[in-house]
Design goal:
By secondary structure, this protein is of the alpha/beta class. The protein has two domains: 129 residues, 3-Layer(aba) Sandwich (Rossmann fold), CATH 3.40.50; 122 residues, Nitrogenase molybdenum iron protein domain (Rossmann fold, 3-Layer(aba) Sandwich), CATH 3.40.50.1980. Helices cover 39% and strands 12% of the residues. It is built from twelve helices and nine strands. The strands form two sheets. A five-stranded mixed beta sheet has the order 7-6-5-8-9. A hairpin with a 6-residue loop joins strand 5 and strand 6. Helix 5 packs antiparallel against helix 6. The protein starts with 5 loop residues before the first helix and ends in a 5-residue tail after the last helix.
Length: 288
């Protein structure tokens, strides 16, 4: 195991005990935030000035790319995090490996996990409010939540006019392992697609399953959404149509294959209403 200079270890140890007991954000912190949902909310609040590190999957808003990355949220290294000299690590418990988190705990770096999960609209609004209070941005949080509620009202009003639901398969190209994944009915993506007036036909115990040609061919979706990394890597629409299992689908035959941003589909946040309204335009061109 790589050893760190005694000076650095002593400085980190002085930051306080590993806990989630901090009530409010302190000024002049050096924050590493390892959660894409948290990071988007922090930026929406205008509270990003103390961020010195983020995880690789935090890609929105575009300005976040100016902040150093500390690795993929499930494949972190202590060295990457410690290089930012953090006084606080914020994460959502979806982090690893465990050995790295244990090492950081032993160094007594303060950590913060917010209570609300943000996995439905009410909980997402509560999370925005919670993070807003932590960073002393209560008024901005209220403003964000009002807009989110207004946008979702438009979404539901439009969805109520639909009499059928086209099937939609969402394919995500995993950066970490270079494998194709597909979203299931248990994913956050499935909620967005349902609100937009479509339905994901693929079932599974988890929100994502490794893609196989048989799964896509059997689903035979009306529409295929391919996330940005995979779409851009493949290079052309014609090449995408040749993916195993894709070529024979109704989506390929009708050219209903579209590029979407991965960060728009995997969590709920300030832009969720806007995102669903945009999805409605893609998958429900009949929407009023």
């Amino acid at each position: 195991m790589k050893k760190f200079p005694i000076v650095i270890l002593l400085a980190l140890a002085a930051c306080g005990r590993f806990s989630n007991k901090e009530e409010n954000h302190k000024s002049e912190q050096r924050i590493v935030c390892i959660a894409k949902q948290y990071n988007e909310i922090i930026f929406a609040l205008g509270a990003e000035k103390d961020l010195v590190g983020v995880d690789l999957s935090s890609t929105y808003p575009p300005e976040i790319k100016k902040i150093p990355t500390v690795g993929y949220h499930r494949a972190l290294s202590a060295e990457g995090i410690l290089s930012t000299k953090p006084t606080l690590i914020i994460h959502d418990n979806n982090v690893g490996p465990e050995a790295v988190m244990t090492q950081l705990e032993k160094l007594k770096i303060p950590m913060k996990v917010f209570e609300n999960k943000g996995d439905d609209i009410a909980s997402a609004q509560a999370l925005i409010k919670e993070i807003g209070a932590y960073f002393h941005k209560e008024k901005k949080a209220d403003s964000i939540n009002i807009k989110l509620e207004t946008d979702m009202k438009k979404v539901m009003e439009t969805a109520a006019t639909f009499k059928d639901k086209p099937t939609v398969v969402v394919i995500h190209f995993g950066r970490a392992n270079n494998v194709y994944l597909t979203m299931t009915q248990k994913s956050t993506t499935a909620k967005l697609i349902e609100w937009a007036g479509g339905a994901i036909p693929i079932t599974g115990e988890r929100g994502m399953l490794q893609l196989s040609a048989e799964v896509i061919a059997k689903a035979d979706p009306d529409i295929i959404l391919l996330t940005d990394f995979g779409y851009d890597k493949l290079g052309s629409f014609d090449q995408i149509k040749t993916l195993p299992g894709v070529a024979g689908t109704k989506a390929a035959k009708s050219n209903h294959i579209y590029r979407v941003e991965e960060h728009d589909l995997v969590y709920l946040g300030p832009r969720t209403g806007e995102i669903v309204l945009d999805l409605q335009k893609l998958i429900r061109p009949d929407a009023k």
